[in-house]
Design goal:
The chain is an alpha+beta fold. It is built from nine helices and 24 strands. The protein folds into two domains: 227 residues, FAD/NAD(P)-binding domain (3-Layer(bba) Sandwich); 178 residues, D-Amino Acid Oxidase, subunit A, domain 2 (D-Amino Acid Oxidase, Chain A, domain 2), CATH 3.30.9.10. The strands form five sheets. The protein has an eight-stranded mixed β-sheet. A six-stranded mixed β-sheet has the order 11-4-3-15-22-21, sandwiched between helices. The protein is globular and about 70 Å long.
């Protein structure tokens, strides 16, 4: 059943629903779909004009499985199956078009901060196919790749950046990795599927108040005076999640918190031979030099950073105060690192790319949890590495709202502990401290 709508005596629009979700990115839209499937009436509020227009639209949309915890690995492997069966997941074809998963493979270079020896037992447990490549296999399988070891990452103005390699690398190859070609469209697909099940979306509005007392949640008030009355509110507001938590009065005693971080991803012509005739080249995690890369349809290459210690992080006090233009300094730093790995890659003179804002926790794992305020739930800290989990996050949050502590993936059968994503978890000591998790 869909939400109800009334106009009160004072002209205030009142919408009544079972759940209000704040944020219509790929995470919020996934939650809306699953709660609607549960038979709940759902209202989704977003300050943008359409689904997927916030941090989702700036995602590189890489699908990978190498995380530092079992629950991270199991969640990403479960979600891959949703991308592969996207039409089935949505329950039909979307008239807006369909985002597509490209199975091009994922390569993770072996580095001290994220040794593949820690990942392999988790892959074996999850039954994820993989291969371990030595330097010769790397050179044979990935055209133009230099398998040299340069660890640790250095600034490109450091003379040591150009020093000769000290040894060679091995790598972990997962053939089932890849990317989704249109992240914003993926959010639209989820939102439209939720709509078909009765969910209502309110765009161009921000939340100004969380209704109810300290120990109850009764909905939210919007900046135009509209009141959405709902006993369940889910914060999926991405980089704006901290503001909403403050309005709700939650988060003061959590062991993990989130902060917005500005990020750039650049687009350059791929090095010769990297992209295939029918499929783009693979996704590559190169923490040895501090970048990640993936091919794009049309012969391009996306290049982003992996937060190397030698480069300052750009934290934002206000995600609305954001320079949306790629900067020459970050462009040159990231693309030059990629060119160190692929010597035939050119470094264009003008930066071309996109700017987005990550919503990240200290250990780069998300928070999918209830809060100390009854009825107020959070799906936050997701930017950078949780896009890939969108097919499953809605199901996870449905389980959280029901008070469950484990989730069994319907595709893989793997059991995931929801306590791993708690707001009061112990910080993961094995985290890379980067977007890789």
């Amino acid at each position: 059943m869909g939400p109800g709508c009334d106009v009160g005596d004072a002209g205030i629009v009142s919408i009544t629903a079972d759940a209000a979700i704040i944020g219509a990115g790929v995470i919020g839209s996934s939650i809306a779909l699953e709660l609607a499937r549960d038979g709940m009436s759902v209202v989704v509020v977003d300050k943008a004009k359409a689904a997927g227009q916030g941090s989702t639209s700036a995602s590189s949309a890489i699908v990978r499985f190498n995380y530092s915890t079992w629950d991270g690995v199991a969640l990403s492997w479960e979600s891959k199956h949703g991308w592969e069966k996207w039409e089935d997941h949505l329950g039909g074809i979307d008239d807006a078009g369909m985002a597509q998963f490209h199975r091009v493979g994922k390569l993770a270079l072996d580095v001290d901060v994220a040794p593949i020896t820690k990942v392999l037992p988790l892959f074996d447990r999850a039954h994820i196919p993989y291969e371990v490549w030595d330097a010769d296999e790397l050179s044979r399988r990935i055209a133009g790749l230099d398998p040299g070891r340069y660890w640790p990452p250095r600034r490109i103005d450091d003379p040591e950046f150009w020093a000769d390699a000290h040894g060679t690398l091995t790598a972990l190859w997962t053939p089932d990795g890849g990317f989704v070609d249109d992240p914003a469209l993926a959010a639209v697909n989820l939102a439209n599927s939720a709509r078909r099940r009765g969910a209502q979306f309110v765009f161009g509005r921000t939340v100004t108040e969380v209704l109810g007392g300290d120990n109850t949640t009764q909905g939210v008030r919007l900046d135009d005076g509209t009141e959405v009355h709902a006993p369940i509110v889910v914060n999926a507001a991405g980089p704006w999640s901290g503001v909403l938590n403050q309005l709700a009065g939650v988060g003061a005693d959590w062991t993990v918190s989130t902060r917005p971080m500005r990020q750039e991803v650049h687009h350059v012509p791929a090095p010769p031979g990297f992209n295939g005739d029918t499929q783009p080249g693979p996704a590559i995690a190169d923490l040895d030099l501090g970048v990640y890369m993936r091919g794009t349809p049309g012969g391009g290459l996306l290049v982003g950073g992996t937060e190397p210690e030698c480069e300052p992080l750009e934290w934002l006090d206000d995600p609305d105060v954001l320079n949306l233009n790629p900067t020459t300094a970050i462009f040159e730093s990231q693309v030059t690192r990629a060119a160190r790995r692929f010597p035939s890659l050119g470094v264009p003179g003008k930066p071309i790319g996109i700017v987005g804002v990550y919503d990240v926790t200290e250990d780069w794992a998300p928070i999918y949890d209830a809060t100390e305020r009854p009825g107020f739930f959070v799906a936050i800290g997701t930017s950078g590495n949780q896009f890939k989990n969108a097919p499953t996050v809605g199901k996870v949050m449905s389980a959280v709202i029901k008070g469950e502590h484990t989730f069994a993936g319907p595709h893989t059968g793997n059991t995931i502990s929801l306590d791993a994503f708690s707001r009061n978890r112990l910080r993961n000591p094995d985290s890379t401290g980067t977007v890789m998790g």
